[in-house]
Design brief:
- With about 160 residues, the chain is mainly alpha-helical.
- The chain is built from 5 helices and no strands.
- The longest helix is centred in the C-terminal third of the chain and has 40 residues.
Amino acid sequence: MQDAFSSPEHHRRHQPPYDPLYPPPHPSPHPSPHYTSPSHLTYPWQPQPPEPERRRQPRHHALGRHSDIRVLRGAYRWQRRVATLTALGYFTLFLLLSAFAPGLMTSEVSGGLPTGLLLGLLQVPVTCLAIGLYEYTARRRVDPIADRIRRQTQLDAKREATR
């Protein structure tokens, strides 16, 4: 027996109004989900659905969503910028002085050594300084974050192995 609220007549009377500019929706060949039978059990003799397996939630998010990866990328980006700008900045300064200050570059420093040659020879120590800055920023900023992520990954792998 149907109740008053599930009859087709009730549904026709309580349809939402529609705009006259748009045609009314066509009836669907498939019944909508709220007019079908309920998803819960109706009869007590029906078998109970199996309980879903309960799994412990990990304390930490998976590494793909973890903010440590973003922090590591940012630290590595900072490391590359510092080292690159050190070496390229000095080389760009040397080129600009050569192009726009030839009087300075040809002036002698001591014993007949021109300033341009001295600045050119200083390229080697500046490059070594850039390498040193790269290693220093790696030890100071990047390595601790990478070690923390590595430890967390190992702990997560051990936890997954024991399940």
